[in-house]
Each structure stands twice: as structure tokens, then as C-alpha cells.
Amino acid sequence: MPSMHAYTMTPKDYQDLIDRGWRRSGHYCYKQDNTKTCCPHYTIKCDALNFKLSKSHKKIIKRMNRFLRDGKRGKNDEELNSSMTSEKPDGENMEVEMNNEGCGIRDVVEAPNVPLKNINLEAFAKANEKGKSNEKQPGVQKPKTNAMEIDKNSTQNNETPNNSKNSTDGANPPCKKAKQMRLERRLAKQAAKGLPAVIENKPSKSQEKSLKEFLNDAKPDDKHKLNFELIHVKSKEFFKTLPMTYALYKKYQTLIHKDPPNAEQEYLDFLQRSPLKLTKPSDGPPLGYGSFHQQYYLDDQLIAVAVIDILPYCVSSVYFFYDPDYSFLSLGTYSSLREIELVQDLASKVPALKYYYMGFYIHSCPKMRYKGKLSASYLLCPEAYTWHPLSDEIRLKLDANKYQRFNDDPLARDENEFEESDMDLVLLMIDQSSYVKYRQYRQRSMNLVAAIRNKIAGSDDHAAIVEYGKLVGKPLAHRMLYLKM
């Protein structure tokens, strides 16, 4: 699996990397080789502006709202909706925690414990910078207790349908719809009370409540309050709450993943350290672009933390962990809906920021397919790096063959393909105070081969740099500094 350590990068750099199939864990960046792995990982994103709530999503939101309203869990709340929460994977929020609620597979890769080389980065401070869903009106279907059931009952009693008690003149009477029966009962009650018959016109499908309205249905007299804090990973607020977040993480690792908890330093390396520089352009989101923790507080108690990156075109889910005592709330799926809502809110201020990246979609792992249940989702072609709707046709192809090139045009190529001729402009870091372009390095090496042989010299380095360029693409190879460890 190709990988590299990133000392520092702009949010735009990382946006371009994940659009080529890369992900990060702390400072460790990695990319799956889908032609070799037994379980191909495909980058998946959701168009948050065209996201549609499913019935399962609504049930989870209503369960949360009911709990906040009266503190009751409900009859079936102890049974986790495993189809919805294979959890998040690296999606990382999605770990297989985009919320794995209990899944043992992770698509978040913890970085190997390799210390970053001490270098002076200050010298390089200036080097770097969808579709309407035509849902049919879900008219109420007739109960399955009419003609077929009558026929079954009459057969058991050795009677014909025409001789049954429910027949009139040899024909079955029409069965009233449940909706019509409820309306008649309501009108009858109004008439009994001497009230005028009033029929409420409920909102049509086009007027259905939005995701924000569903999620933010709190009332002043609710028993519990759910609040959120979005904090940068290098802020004072982060370190102030560190004892709480680390304690929650240890509890989660122990009870959900059955793993011995990482030491605090390992926790920081995994979920707090980030190569992304905090940038706050005037036309960007209020908190800027970078790495953040979204903390969930039930009343005053921390119950969950979502680790996310806010990038120029998306919110990228990195990891999610929660208090196992609240597993009955399906927090994995609930957090993904909250993050989609965050994207929608950011898009109102920054129109280009309209996608929600969920990490990797692993079709060969049933517990990871929940990501594909978010409407308006797209998969990244691993060869042409183009985006394609996650359709039933693509699912069938993945059923037949785990590895797929989603772009059907055999001539379609990577627009940012790196070639040998692009080598001259690759930026090479040769010591802690300077860098050169490859063509300058090559010229210098002709005269100073002995002096820099141990830095970036030799044919092996040439091959490694070519591979690096092909993996990150031409623009990034010309924009980021390459350091030979």
C-alpha cells in the first residue's frame, strides 16, 4: 500500500490528494492499491445538497428526538440497527466507524509509529496555497387483509368467497384505506363535540421537512439538551477538553472494539495531529479550513466526538467515537446525518463546499455497504479519477468482479497524469534550509555527486520520485516538497 508522512500541507493539497484516492491518519497518508488487495477500497462522497432522508434515517432521528424530549428509550432501542451502522469508517468518521456501531472492520488505518524527521518548516512557509430524486407519492397501500385473505379464510371454512359473511350480492365490498378510516374517525369525534368538520392539509411531498428541520426539532421543555462544539485540533478549547475526550476514547476502544486503549500520546498522534494548516480566507467558512473535532454534549456530558477535516469542496470524515452507554441511539449513523447537515450549512456560505466524503466504500464487505445507502453518492474511478453515481448497475458489476474501472470510456485518462517529462519541475528538499527543482538538482548533481549522494542521489531515487509523481498527480508533484527520508 503506497504511503507517506506529511509534515504540512494546505487544505487544497489534501483535497487534491483525496480526489486521487488518498486518506490520512494523523500525519500518515495512504492510498489503497485496488489491483492487489483482496478488498478494493473506493473513495466515496455524497452530494449533500441533493441528499434525501430514507425511512431508516428518519427513524434514527425520531428515536433521538424522542429520547431528548422525554428521556425514554422505546421498546426496540436496545437493538442496534446494524444495517444502518456498520459504523462509520474512516470516513472515516468513518472508521468502520463512519460509524461502526460495533463493526470490527476499520477503513481507517492507524499510522505506523514512525517519528517524523525533525526539519525546519519555516523556511518553506512561502513555498506552498446533484440531482432531484423523483420520489413517488407514497400513497397508502391497501391492507393485505382483503380479497386474498378472505379467499384464504373461506377456503379453510370450505366456503366460497361469494358465501362468506363479507360478501354482498356475490361481490366483495371495497376495503377502506387506513388513511380514510382515520379521517372518518377524526371527523366523527369533531361532530360529536359539536365542532365544525375541519380537514387539515398536510404538507405535500415537495414540502417535506428538510434534514435540518428533522434534526433540530428541540423544544424548550425537552428533558435533555443535545449541544455541539466544533473546535480546531490545535485550539485552547481542544486541550482544555482533552481529559474528557481521551477518557471517552478509551472507554469506546475497550467496550466497542475490545482493544486495549492507546496511550494519550498515541491518541493524539492518531486523532489530533494533522498536517493541515488552518487557513481562513475571507470567502471561506467562518472557522476556516483545517482539522476539527465536533463534540456532542448531552446536557453537560460528552457522549461523542467526530473527527473531521473541512476542505475547499467537502467535509471529510476521519473518525468517530462515542459513549457505549448510548449505543441505543445509533450514534454512528446519527453523526453522519449531522455532518451532512454541517456541509449543507457551510454550502450556504461557501457554494463550492457541498460534498461529504465518507472515506472508502468496500463493496465486498457487507458491513461497510451502509455508506452506499446515503442518496446521491458517487464512487471515484481508480484509473481515470472521475466520479460516478453509485447505481444498481455499478453494484452488480462489483458483485461480479471486486475491482472495477467505473469510467466506461477506455480512452479516458487521468487529467493530471504524471509523465517522465514532468520530472524537471518536481520540488526536492535537499536539506533543512533549501529546496530545488529536479532539473536544478540534476545539474547540481553532475558537479556535486559526492556531496549530495546521501541526500537525494542515485537511480533508485529517480524511480521513487517518478512513482511519487504518478500517485499524487502532476499538479501536486509540482506544488509539494518531496523529501527523501
Automatic annotation (TrEMBL):
Region (Disordered): 69-96, 127-181
N-end aminoacyl transferase N-terminal domain location: 8-59
Any GO CC annotation of this UniProt entry: cytoplasm
Ubl conjugation listed as a keyword: no
Residue ranges of every copy of the N-end rule aminoacyl transferase C-terminal domain listed in the record: 245-381
Pfam families: ATE_C, ATE_N
Start-end of Polar residues biased regions: 153-170
Protein name as it appears in the record: Arginyl-tRNA--protein transferase 1
Organism: Stomoxys calcitrans
Lineage per the UniProt record: Eukaryota, Metazoa, Ecdysozoa, Arthropoda, Hexapoda
